[in-house]
Amino acid sequence: MCTNIKLAWRNIWRNRRRTLITVASIFFGVLLSAYMTSMQEGSYSKMVDIVVKFYSGYMQVHHEDYWENKSINNSFDYDQALIDKLKSHPEVDFVIPRLESFGLASAEELTRGAAIFGIVPDVENQLTGIAAKIISGKYLQPTDDGVVIGDGLARFLKLQIKDTLVIITQGYHGVSSAGKFPVRGIIKHVSPELNKSIIYMELKTCQYFLGADNKLTSLVVNVDDNDVMTSTLKKLKKEIQSPYSVMSWEEMQPEIVQQIESDRAGGIIMKAILYIVIAFGILGTIMMMIAERRREFGVMISIGMQKKKLAAVLFIETLLIGLLGIASGIAVSLPLLFFQAQNPIPLTGETAKLMEDFGFEPYMFFSTAPEVFWQQAISIFIISVLIGIYPIISTLKIKAIKALHG
Amino acid sequence: MNVIEVNALEKIYNDSEVKVFALNGVDMTIEEGEFTAIVGPSGSGKTTFLNMLGGLDQPTSGQISIGGTDISKLSSSQLIDFRLRNIGFVFQAYNLIPVLTAKENVEFIMHLQNRPKEERENRTMSLLKAVGLEGRENSRPNKLSGGQQQRVAVARALASKPKFVLADEPTANLDSKSTENLLEIMEELNIKENITFVFSTHDQRVVNKARRVITLEDGKIISDVRKDILPQ
Hints:
Chain A is an alpha+beta fold. In chain A, 57% of the residues lie in helices and 19% in strands.
């Protein structure tokens, strides 16, 4: 085996320039593909971050009927035992209680539909970091009777700090709720939709306003990342039974998952085209190598080298070319993408505005997840193995006498 | 003892409507230690005959027995293994493996035979010494002259301790000095180590050195002359 590898290694350098060009084509393929994957995955994880960190969290516990009919009537009682049960899982970082409803927000003669979030200010801030997004005024305090509203809503209703916001809605079991709330703060929410409609209110104040004492519509269960979520979700789904249900952000936001999947599929097609081009490049090199050395193969078989041994040498040559391309591609893309992940590319002009309108930070984000690199390595390796079949078949078909005489 | 026995050997090419007899009923034997030249004009069947003896081509009919083994009955894979253990080849164009050094080229055959490292190294060095290439063992073929390359090819052919060495016009690409040198080496190996050599050649210098000369014409042996006197 050692001799085969030595022979294969020396053979690939017989035509140094051709090998370098082939390796370079794989190198650029790996680099481009890793860069593209990193950019895609970076933007997806940012998208997920926004969904998870500014709204839903990784998982939520609801009343089992709530997701089908998001009515305050499908709320459940605050239950410390349930919260403790959720927290008993070491993967769970924190549990956030919420009471969510809809209502009409008014000021003077202006009215707009609004999403009302009853929150525990300190706990909520752990997940969403909304205190840092206050652009005017201050964040809610415990037992606060005021509200923090989205910048878009404030502008629409022409409200400023200390102005009064009127909310009218239907509370728990049809009770009419109407109240006046001083505006404590205005936030710039990353989601444009929520920015135009969000109203944060202290949980107790919200429960009192909606006539829903001790009621919650959701418990946000947060974990470290998506991988942890998958395993924790399985456990929680088994453990948390009727009248509750546990849902992941993917179940709550299927349109985001679909968007990511379809974009990912587009990326796969692009990468497939790139890899097909690379594959033909490698195949061309291997075919040339075989054509040039046919006589030599005839000699080797004549002097007693079994065809399968010769085929093994050629197979190793193909793999070595592939591996050199992979190694060089990964060696360069690894530091480059780690640098880019630390220093995302800022976007400017219309693109930046468009991104901001969609609730994204105007940056091109990069991921350094292991799959960004190993996917490229595995793809090229598989391509090399498949191309390596060609010299095997060619070698097994060689007739020594014909090869010897050209 | 007969190393090679050929009986009623025929090779017919029938690519066109007319059958061409490349070999037409050849019978002969070659004994151990012979130094034989096969001569004849172009198209006489020399190369075809050598290919048959080397197990590189299949006869249309007839039998070739090497060391008692009828090679026409061996499968392709068995033939390769048989060649590895029984036949040494020297080609007109040297045909060394260009990426291996002189030493590695000689050792390569023994690698294929799975010989132990120590044996490989000792035999390689003694063979390279025998062909006068001591000190050039680490040179690649492109750094050696034609004559030197052919001497490496001879050492390679002998590395497997074959029953005989087949040399297809081994001096065709060499100048007169290299030819003389190579012939002396092969003759010495033949006499001292009793190695059997079979050449196909056009070269009168090879014919002069040979102790047996078989002449082929139109696929038939037309003369088979033995010179009884061994060189001094």
